[in-house]
Amino acid sequence: MVFELAVDLAAVVRGSATRLLINDRADIAVAAGADGVQLTSTSLAVDVVREAFGAVMLIGVSTHSLEEVRQAEAGGADFAVFGPVFETPGKPHARGVDQLTNACTGVASFPVLAIGGIDAGNVSSVLSAGASGFAAIRALNDAARFGEIIRKVRNN
């Protein structure tokens, strides 16, 4: 099921600026023609995935501390996703903007994306903290909120 969906999505984004990353499954990402993989704390190690699949694959790593961001960078990841920055219904233990700032400044040349509870009211704070970008689910599923977030990002 995941493989079939990945194949379909890879076909949709092919030739566009959009990049498709598959969560946790580098094998499916490669077989489906996706652009990369997002590794979790229970995934294969970054260096193992990099060695097996090469530099062509984008590799992101979910992180929760500066040390984990540094490990992702040292292992050969292309970027880290740090969070949750703010509490969400599924992840109540927020790291906060200060820890995000610490992670971003601790690896100044390595891209760190913010995730977790990001919405129109706080997106500016994560970008000001040094995040290279952000990911959101709930906030981007509502057309009105999506437009508001895009306006704030453009003005930041």
Which characteristics define this entry?
156 residues, alpha/beta, 2 domains, TIM Barrel
Descriptive notes:
The protein has 2 domains: 1-58, no CATH class; 64-156, TIM Barrel (Alpha-Beta Barrel). The chain is of the alpha/beta class. Helix 1 crosses helix 2 (26-32) and helix 4 packs parallel to helix 5 (96-106). The model has no long low-confidence stretch (mean pLDDT 92). The chain is 43% helix and 15% strand. The protein is globular and about 40 Å long. The chain has a 6-stranded parallel beta sheet. It has 7 helices and 6 strands; from the N terminus they run H-E-H-E-H-E-H-E-H-E-H-E-H.
Q: So, CATH architecture of the largest domain?
A: Alpha-Beta Barrel
Enter the CATH topology name of the largest domain.
Answer: TIM Barrel
Mean pLDDT: 92
Which sequence of strands runs across the widest sheet?
Answer: 1-2-3-4-5-6
Main CATH class of the largest domain: Alpha Beta
- Total strands: the figure is 6
The percentage helix is 40-55%
CATH homologous superfamily of the largest domain, by name?
Answer: Aldolase class I
Q: What is the overall shape?
A: globular
**Approximately what portion of the residues adopt beta-strand conformation?**
15-25%
Largest sheet: 6 strands, parallel
